[in-house]
Every structure is written in C-alpha cells, then in structure tokens.
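Help wanted!
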Amino acid sequence: MDRHFDEELQNVKRKLVEMAALVEESITKSLDGLKKKSAEMASEIREIDHKIDELEIAIEDMCIELIARHQPVGSDLRFLIGAIKMNNDLERMGDHSVNIADCIEYVIEGPHVAQITNIWSMAKIVKEMLRESVESFIHNDAARAQKVCERDSVVDEMRNETIRILLTYMLKEPEKIGSAIQYLLVAKNLERIADLSTNICEDVIYIAQARVIKHHAEEKKA
Amino acid sequence: MIINTANLNLYYHKFQALKNVNMSIKRNLITGMIGPSGCGKSTLLRIFNRMNDLIEGVRITGSVLIDNDDIYAPVYDLILLRKRVGMVFQRPNAFPLSIFDNIAYGPRVWSISDKKTLTEIVERSLAAVDLFDDLKDDLRRPALSLSAEKQQRLCIARLLAVEPEILLMDEPCSALDPIATGKIEELMLDLKKKYTIIIVTHNMQQAARIADEVGFMLLGELVEFDTAKTVFTNPKDKRTFDYISGRFG
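Answered by r_m:
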C-alpha cells in the first residue's frame, strides 16, 4: 500500500539533499576563495549560509511535525531521528565553511603559506567524504557509509601533518605567523567537516541497519 | 471557508451539549474533531447535515453557514443539504441490495433512471474509492457479502454518487482492523482533493495522521481549533495538552 506518509518522508530526504548541495557549494567556494585570495567570495558564502540556516529550521520543523503526527516506528523512526541529526551536522558544516571564508581577508596580503602544507589535498579528501556521505544517505547504502568513516583517520593525520609543517614554518619565519595561523584554522575547520561527514555516515548506518557504530559502541558490546 | 458556525449552542431538553461553538472549516481539508466520550463531537458533526433535527427535544441557537447559506433557515432545502453533505457512520451500513443498487440508490432518488448514466455513476464512484477493479465483474453481488472495509468503502462510494461537497465521517474506522483503517485513511487523503472532510474520531493518532486542522472538544466546548501541526506540537490550552498526552480521557 502506498502511504502518503512515505511521500512526506521523501520530502524530508529531498530537502536534506538540497541542503547538502548548498553545503558542498559553500565549501567549494570558500576553498576557491582562499586559493584565489578573493574577499568577494566571503560575502557569497555568507548568503549561502543564510539559505542553509533557513533550510535547517524548515527540515527540523518537518521532522518534528512528522514525529508528533505519525508516531513513526522502525526504519521510519530511525530515518527521522537520523534526518534531524544530519540536518544539524550539515548546518555545522556550513558554519565551518564560513569560518574558512573568514580566514580569506587575513591571508590576502600575506604569503602563499598554503603551498607548503597539504591543505589542498586534505580539502580534496574532505569534499569527497562529504559527497560520499550524502550519496550513501540518498541510496541508504551502509557499506558506502562505512568506507567514508574509515577515511576520517586519514584526514586527522593530514591535519596533524599540516600543524607540524606550519609550526616549523612559524619558527623559521616568525613575521609570517599571522598568515600561518589562518591556515591552521582552515585545517582545523576542514578536519571538523570530515568529522561531521563521518557523523552523517554513522547515521546512515543506523538508519539502514539499526547499528550504532559511533564511539566504537559495537566493539565495546562484544 | 466552506462552513462557519457562530455562537452555536445545542440543548437536549435542558442539557446543553454544545456551548458557544465558533469555528470555520476550510474547503478541501480534513478537519478532525477529537475529545473524550460525550464531549459533543458527534453532536457537532450531526449539526452540519441537520441529523439532530430527528432527535426529540433538541433546540439549537446560533448560526451554521455553509457557503454563507444558513442551513437552519426555514427556507433551506433539507434534501439538497443531505445531497451536499454526506455522512459515513461508525459501522458500514450497506443496504441489503446489490453493490450496483447501493450506489445507484442516491442518483435514483434524484430521478436519474437512464441505465447508461447510472452505470457510469456506479463505475466512477467505485473507482473513486478504489473498488472498481475488484468488483467490476461482480456488481450484482449482495453488498453485505463484502468485507467490513469494502462495505465501508462502498458506503463512501454511495455518498460520492450524489456528488456531495462535504463528507462527514463519524468514527468511520472504529469497526475496522488496523490494516483496513490504514486503507480508509489513505482513501480520505485522496478524497480531500475533491471534497471537504470532517471526521470525528476517538483515535487521536488517526486525527494526527490525516487531519489538516483539529478541534479538541470537552464538555460541549470547543477548547482549541488549530492546524494539526500546532495542536500536536504546541497546543495552546493545557486541557488539550493533557488530553493528547494521555493525561486524561
């Protein structure tokens, strides 16, 4: 039997995918702005973030209404709980993208410190993780989500490497500490975006298979 | 708006069953009336097709307008009202006739006797309640041989045959199991595209699932009337919250 409720769940999914596309656009633009040292990009990113914030409120509202009115159970309940958490994670990613954009104005006059770090390769992986997390959500694909989670430690390691490189650089050239700190912040924000993509994937696994993998919960149980 | 009540009161002799009810029901929405037994929700429903007129000692004050016409005005055509406003009851009340004759009953009252026209109406009405494919080769079968859910669908089809605008449903799923209830609810959600539906239900979850707007009644008073979203996520009156959260009722 086709249920009208299923259509409403699909609407939530569509809105989340729309929000994820905006987040990806925002991150791409903030990194692009950083690379090109383009201050104009920052205001564009704030506009996108405003749309992301509006969607967050709308999606949360839809989920609350569906839970209150339909009292979902089983996979429907897991989907709505997962959707609320994913909604929150995507909004936070938008904020991290704004944080990256905020760094642009401080590096415009400075040297291209980023060239000596692995920020761009880190950014590439982080964007792939975001895209894959959203794809795994769209296709309800736990195996695909699991692969994204496994990449989180790679990003953590790259962030640590960036910190090491930048510390060495700052020690050698203290007059460039101002710019270097901005790139430290960029690395930190990229790493947080990767964490949030991992969170989304943990939610996808919960939605698809009712398994809780966060905080090594399954290992602890065993 | 399709229905407006103003300062509506109803008395059974000295007992006041409805107290100053003011509400506006919108076209092509499902309006759900909830409340504990004896709160007046069925009495209110029967106001809209004047079914209470049949009860001895009933006295009504205030006004009930449908499309701005006062349905309690002495000149109002009661037969026309019953055509415009159909009613589905708790238990399916199919007539002891064939499926075809059940649905053709109303149109025949309205003097439609042409076989081709009647057949078209029967087929269209059965299709609207998603019964046509099942029953198209069996239209002469006794209606009472159908399952309870199909009989209830048939009763809805019988209403649709006279092309009403408003469907009143008094606990339409109370005699059905959860699967059949789900099917009737899906049917209601389809029907609201063409009809205005008012449903009285003991099953609060049912109102939450399908109603666009919800009225909570208590002791004859319309305590709260708002969108289903507001009533179930942020009710304004503590009595509504206590009822929908299971604290009483």
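OP: Thanks! One thing I noticed: Chain A has a mean pLDDT of 92.
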